């Protein structure tokens, strides 16, 4: 941990923006918590910790259920990642949002001593030894939610026995599937509940609250086929450019993962300027263009509702992004080859609601097939998402 900390410090000093934010945020977190603790007047605290944005979305249905059912409890939300903290630092459903103080035994003990914790909820992959040991020492009920485990993870390796012992610090581990439960139990971890993934509940809530977007509505009006490409990276965009050039009847709504000017300029060069930016759209520009480039954040989950087929980016890099945001609208989903860590991706593939591709030929064929069978594949997507609802209620009822 200390080696990692000094690497972060060095990266921050060398100008890495994310590392600088993380170091500064962690440095200030304990002081912020101490000041907040002085205002609690004995009120008990429910602590929810999420690594970043994706994990927060898994925690969000639980947080909002807590706020509704237990309005007089104080809720603390911590993040490890600057991207999660920056996006949700003003989240109104909790009483305090901070970075997680750096995970040393000293910091963990200080945090436990200053806060009257009633329970702690960790999301998916959060296994900080210092905090789990400190929570156990204080006898604070601790839960892991929306977790998923695979045989190749460190816990189950011959050299990972120390980490396997950490799992016994949780009062309950709520896993997404039966395979995870069986794997844990085969290694002596018995306090396991198969509850499902709270993201299904969350995407259904998002669908019900989807924004009306007049710019997108005007752009897709009268289109024969509409492709929404979400959270794309340059590797995805190269394929999309070629596909749109070869398919004159397709209109593309392109939502890049990064919207800094350097990335947008790269897209400009790929499309040779033949697109309209969302923030600059006019009726005339929309009428003359086949590509709408969304250069703002926070609207992707609502944009999917306007598409016939979705392409979810990231699969030609580290991993795919959120496929459920698209599938919840009952539409076919196409994504790249790196999807194996996501149970919902496999579920969509098995249900016949998604297609994975490895190169441009497969990419073009998959999109053509998805457009041709969008009713059938879309119905399969709806059936799959609906079958997975209810994790929030199962977790809440078990804990509270």
Protein described:
With 400 residues, the protein is an alpha/beta fold. The chain is built from 19 helices and 14 strands. It has two domains: 15-206 and 390-399, Rossmann fold (3-Layer(aba) Sandwich), CATH 3.40.50; 213-384, Glycogen Phosphorylase B (Rossmann fold, 3-Layer(aba) Sandwich), CATH 3.40.50. The strands form two sheets. A seven-stranded parallel beta sheet has the order 3-2-1-4-5-6-7, sandwiched between helices. Strands 10-11-9-8-12-13-14 form a seven-stranded parallel beta sheet, with helices on both faces. The longest helix is centred in the N-terminal third of the chain and has 21 residues, at 17-37. The two termini are 34 Å apart.
The residue ranges in which pLDDT falls below 50 over 5 or more consecutive positions are none
Mean pLDDT: 93
The overall number of domains is: 2
Instruction: Assess the beta-strand content as a share of residues.
Output: 15-25%
Tell me the Rg in angstroms: 22 Å
Number of strand elements: 14
Please name the CATH architecture of the largest domain: 3-Layer(aba) Sandwich
Main sheet: strand order: 3-2-1-4-5-6-7
Shape estimate:
globular
CATH class type of the largest domain: Alpha Beta
Task: State the end-to-end distance.
Answer: 34 Å
Provide a brief overview of the structure.
The protein has 19 helices and 14 strands. It is α/β, with parallel strands linked by helices.
């Amino acid at each position: 941990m200390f080696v990692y900390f000094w690497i972060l410090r060095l990266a921050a000093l060398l100008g890495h923006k994310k590392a600088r934010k993380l170091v500064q945020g962690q440095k200030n977190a304990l002081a912020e918590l101490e000041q907040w603790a002085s205002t609690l007047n004995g009120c008990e605290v429910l602590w929810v910790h999420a690594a970043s944005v994706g994990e927060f979305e898994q925690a969000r249905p639980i947080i909002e259920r807590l706020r509704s059912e237990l309005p007089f409890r104080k809720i603390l939300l911590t993040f490890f990642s600057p991207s999660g903290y920056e996006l949700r630092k003003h989240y109104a459903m909790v009483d305090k949002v901070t970075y997680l103080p750096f995970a040393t035994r000293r910091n963990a003990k200080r945090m436990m001593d200053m806060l009257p914790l009633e329970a702690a909820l960790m999301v998916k992959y959060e296994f900080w030894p210092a905090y789990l040991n400190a929570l156990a020492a204080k006898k604070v009920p601790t839960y892991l939610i929306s977790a998923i485990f695979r045989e190749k993870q460190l816990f189950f390796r011959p050299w990972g026995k120390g980490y396997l012992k950490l799992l016994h610090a949780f009062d309950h581990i709520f896993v997404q599937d039966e395979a995870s439960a069986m794997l844990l139990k085969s290694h002596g971890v018995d306090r396991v509940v198969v509850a499902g993934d709270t993201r299904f509940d969350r995407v259904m809530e998002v669908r019900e609250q989807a924004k009306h977007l007049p710019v997108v509505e005007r752009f897709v009006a009268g289109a024969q086929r509409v492709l929404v490409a979400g959270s794309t990276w340059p590797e995805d965009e190269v394929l999309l450019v070629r596909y749109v050039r070869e398919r004159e009847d397709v209109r593309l709504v392109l939502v890049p993962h990064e919207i800094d000017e350097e990335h947008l300029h790269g897209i400009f060069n790929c499309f040779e300027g033949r697109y309209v930016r969302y923030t600059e759209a006019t009726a005339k520009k929309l009428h003359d263009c086949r590509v709408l480039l969304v250069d703002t954040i926070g609207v992707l989950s609502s944009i999917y509702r306007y598409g016939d087929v979705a392409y979810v980016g990231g699969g030609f890099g580290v991993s795919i992004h959120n496929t459920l945001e698209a599938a919840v609208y009952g539409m076919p989903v196409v994504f790249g080859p790196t999807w194996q860590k996501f149970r919902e991706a496999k579920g969509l593939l098995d249900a016949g609601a998604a297609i994975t591709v490895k190169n441009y030929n497969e990419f073009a064929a998959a999109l053509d097939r998805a457009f041709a069978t969008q009713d059938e594949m879309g119905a399969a997507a709806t059936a799959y998402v609906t079958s997975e609802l209810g994790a929030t209620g199962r977790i809440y009822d078990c804990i509270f």
